[in-house]
Amino acid sequence: MEEEKCCCCAPAEGGDGTERTKERTPEEYKALCNRLSRIEGQIRGLRGMLDRGAYCPDILAQAAAANAALNAFSRELLSQHIRSCVVNDVRAGKDEVIDELLGTLQKMMK
Q1: CATH architecture designation of domain 20-108
Q2: Of the candidates 85, 79, 86, 80, the residue with the CA atom closest to the CA atom of residue 8
Q3: How far, in Å, are 10, 22, 53, 99 from residue 14 at the CA level?
Q4: DSSP string covering 10-40
């Protein structure tokens, strides 16, 4: 039986096979980019607050909001990863993806 190839992730072309890539739908890509753009704006806003000498609790409140936005981005990306790459790899018998997922979760929870 021929090995099922995952349609969403593959080794990067021209690489040594250790770096994987992920093909995202235009909608997924746009949604993730939009989230990151908002986060970038929040970070620039933090810098501006610092430059203006804003009151520490005000800066900390905005930093918490930026952190929450980054966490939301990570949750969305993780959800997409599990629903596509992890599911496809498990179905293809590549159970090592579970260890990779657990390692990723441990890094996220630090």
Answers
A1: Up-down Bundle (1.20)
A2: 85
A3: 12, 15, 49, 26
A4: EEPTTS-S-SEEE---HHHHHHHHHHHHHHH
Task: Report the alpha-carbon distance of residue 34 to residue 29 in Å, rounded.
Answer: 9
- Are 7 and 23 in contact by the 8 Å Cβ rule? The answer is yes
pLDDT tens by residue, 10-67? 555 555 666 788 899 999 999 999 999 999 999 999 999 999 999 999 999 999 999 9
Q: Locate 19 and state its tokens.
A: 């770096």
pTM, full prediction: 0.79
And the tokens for 23?
């093909």
**Where do the domains of the chain lie?**
20-108
